[in-house]
Design goal:
By secondary structure, this protein is an alpha+beta fold. It is built from twelve helices and nine strands. Strand 2 and strand 3 form a beta hairpin. The N terminus and C terminus are likely disordered. It binds a DNA duplex through strand 2, strand 3 and helix 4.
DNA sequence: TAATGCGGGTAGG
DNA sequence: CCTACCCGCATTA
């Protein structure tokens, strides 16, 4: 590594993972990592991190978001997709002014049960707000162990509030259990998911729990990475819908940007493109949809999102569950900056955010048993020592064409139009960029 | 009871 | 060839 790079490393604001140009599917991942990222509980956006293989949280593939295992038939890469968040279907406000934002149970069965419960606060049914931050599909997280490092890659921008973190949920459960075991009775209806305390409970939980994963030792080296404050402001009173594009400078945006676009991973234009960011190789192609996509004409058709057809299956349930809603669900539309991201206020690029990327995934069938697969370990068998050449990567990938589209103008309206109580949630399906196969 | 992972299998693109 | 996703199974906490 050159001296210059080292220096860059020192004052670079981006994560170690973002400094390299890699994709979770690459046969070879950066091997010369000298530094690891501190564990990030609330990753969001198209980010990459390289954690130490020793990091307990990374080992457990932890995430603040409720992520469930997804079978990608690739034993080298663990894939997880976001389940969203469970909220009160009525969007009621808890005594403390916050809103219920439960962590969806990971287990399908448990989740179904969970959804049958009622809001501990207003007794309205609970609703699962699915995540659709990745082209209308749930945000996905990928984990891969390679050498001494654990590579993490996330795709998509969560378009829903944060659920309780795992530790919060656990804390709540145990505290409830305690309460239940000691007192002779417990209001039955409170047994819901364990009630009311959505955020309220936070006050009962040891503060350390809120960020404490298994090893809370990591000082946030990258304060700009994760905001301690969820971008979704649960305290926002229902009545007053905040400025739509109000996205308070969201620190998390500052972390995910380098390196992507070149690969076709896209990066949200909303991510600051300040020059002090790392990856020097990056050549932002974002705003210029036309330039790099001469051959992508066909795709532009995808820009005509049709919430009615576009959204994946999960949607039906969505509709089903949200349809009954009345009106006071503004918060869905107004408080999810992710869906209506903005960078510089007033920036036209504001709505172009949710760009997604379809990365080619090398399907690596696992296990030798069945078909005489070439050992899927090929991925790992690569001489770990071989130095990783980002340059190589770039050239290889440059064969692809990044297609980009701008959000249709109506995206802007989605917000104001949404008065029906549910359609707003399906208004913006990006699918703006695609990675073209040669 | 759940969280997690795994992997077989399906559907749609 | 992929991706998303459903389902059951096993292990662990």
């Amino acid at each position: 590594m050159s001296r210059a790079e080292e220096r860059e490393e020192a004052d670079c604001v981006c994560s170690v993972g973002m400094k390299f140009t890699w994709d979770i599917n690459d046969p070879k991942l950066p091997q010369d990592t000298k530094q690891f990222d501190p564990f990030q509980e609330w990753t969001d956006g198209y980010v990459r991190f390289i954690y130490s293989g020793e990091d307990k949280n990374a080992q457990r593939h932890l995430s603040g978001w409720a992520m469930r295992n997804t079978n990608n038939h690739n034993c080298q890469i663990l894939k997880k997709s976001c389940l969203g968040v469970v909220v009160c279907s009525r969007g009621c406000t808890l005594p403390d002014g916050s809103r219920l934002q439960l962590r969806p149970a990971i287990c399908d069965k448990a989740r179904q049960k969970q959804q049958k419960k009622l809001c501990p606060s207003c007794n309205a049914p609970l609703e699962l707000l699915p995540c659709r931050g990745h082209s209308g599909y749930p945000v996905t997280n990928f984990w891969r162990v390679d050498g001494k490092a654990i590579f993490f890659q996330a795709k998509g921008v969560h378009d829903h509030p944060r659920p309780e973190s795992k530790s919060e949920t656990e804390a709540r459960r145990s505290s409830v259990k305690r309460r239940v075991s000691s007192p002779p009775f417990t209001p039955k209806r409170r047994l819901i998911e364990t009630p009311a305390l959505g955020p309220a409970l936070l006050s009962c939980v040891d503060p350390s729990d809120r960020i404490s994963f298994i090893e809370p030792n990591f000082p946030q080296h990258y304060p700009s990475f994760q905001s301690p404050e969820p971008y979704y402001n649960p305290h926002n009173p229902l009545g007053e819908a905040p400025p739509t594009l109000q996205k308070p400078a969201n620190p998390r945006l500052y972390m995910s940007r380098p390196g992507y676009e070149f690969q076709g991973y896209l990066t949200s234009p909303s991510y600051p493109m300040t020059s002090d960011f790392c990856d020097p190789r990056v050549t932002p192609v974002l705003g210029s949809s036309s330039s790099s996509s001469s051959s992508s004409a066909p795709l532009s058709s995808s820009s005509s999102f049709d919430p009615q057809t576009k959204p994946p299956s999960g949607w039906k349930e969505l509709l089903k569950s949200s349809a009954p809603y009345g009106d006071n669900h503004h918060y869905y539309s107004t408080e999810y900056p992710c869906r209506y991201p903005s960078n510089a206020p007033g920036s036209p690029a504001a709505l172009q955010t949710i760009i997604t990327t379809t990365t080619k995934v090398s399907y690596q069938p696992c296990g030798p048993p069945k078909p005489p697969l070439h050992n899927c370990s090929s991925l790992l068998d690569d001489p770990p020592s071989s130095s990783y050449s980002t340059e190589v990567k770039v050239t290889e990938e440059s064969g692809g064409v990044i297609k980009s589209l701008s959000f249709p103008p109506d995206t802007l309206q989605t917000k104001t139009e949404r008065t029906d109580g549910y359609d707003y949630r399906y208004a913006s399906y990006p699918n703006a960029y695609r990675y073209d196969d040669y």
